[in-house]
Amino acid sequence: MCVTMKVGRSYLNVIMDIAVSHEIWYFMLSLLRGTDLVCCVGHLGVVMSVCWTFSGERFASVGADKKVLLWSPSQSSPLMWLDGHNDVVENCIFISKDYLITSGRDKHFFVWDTAAMDVVTDPFSSILDKRVS
């Protein structure tokens, strides 16, 4: 089991995913509303990792089904999925609002532009161009 916490102005998000399941159990502890419990289902295999955007607007999950799924905290089904890995995807991290890095057992890492729903072919120059402009 892994637990990820995201702290906002009026909430604390805690994500728990059970390694033997394809579900993500999401707890939102709000200082204003109390506690919400959401079960997010979308992976066909074990969920390996979960990560949040810095703002807490979205999160991503990766799994044994070779999928990268993007989620909104307000929905229990994925916003979109990203295909590219040939084996289990083990790790994910957002490096900005729209850029996500994933790596897996296929010995590849991908930098995803989640706004364009595509792999960045030249990740370092593309990310640097966005920060400069």
What is the CATH homologous superfamily assignment? Answer: YVTN repeat-like/Quinoprotein amine dehydrogenase
CATH class identity = Mainly Beta
| CA-CA gap between termini | 40 Å
Report the structural category: mainly beta
The main sheet comes to: 4 strands, antiparallel
Q: What order do the SSEs take from the amino end to the carboxyl end, as H and E?
A: EEEEEEEEEEEEH
Give the integer mean of the pLDDT values: 74
What is the name of the CATH topology?
A: Methylamine Dehydrogenase, Chain H
Evaluate the radius of gyration.
15 Å
Q: How many domain units?
A: 1
Helix content: under 10%
Globally, the shape reads: globular
Describe the structure.
By secondary structure, this protein is mostly beta strands. It has a single domain (2-132), classed as Methylamine Dehydrogenase, Chain H. The protein is built from one helix and twelve strands, in the order E-E-E-E-E-E-E-E-E-E-E-E-H. The strands form three sheets. Strands 1-2-3-4 form a four-stranded antiparallel beta sheet, with no helix packed on it. The longest helix is centred in the C-terminal third of the chain and has 10 residues, at 123-132. The chain is globular and about 35 Å long. Mean pLDDT is 74; it is low at 16-20.
Give the SSE map.
Elements: E1 2-7, E2 11-17, E3 23-30, E4 34-41, E5 47-52, E6 59-63, E7 68-71, E8 80-82, E9 89-94, E10 99-104, E11 109-113, E12 118-119, H1 123-132
Antiparallel strand pairs: 1-2, 2-3, 3-4, 5-6, 6-7, 7-8, 9-10, 10-11, 11-12
Search tags:
133 residues; mainly beta; Methylamine Dehydrogenase, Chain H; 4-stranded antiparallel beta sheet
